[in-house]
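Pasting as-is:
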Amino acid sequence: MDGGTLPEMTREEISEPGTYVDIATGALYRVPAGALHKRVSAAIWKETVDSSQFVQVSKNPHLISLEARIICAAHDIHFNF
């Protein structure tokens, strides 16, 4: 990411691979390209009545956790991973 504002979206709005953080819980989600196809469900997503907001910390779904923490800290995003 370029150091600007990180994109925020709901689970349903996630349309590209990347590393995402749930803003409410600080949980890290890695979304590989294959997980975005409706017919292939390789990813595990929790179900909740709340509409979770996610922030995309990287377009790389294989970003190392330390780097994701650094990006979150730089953008004042709570993380729990």
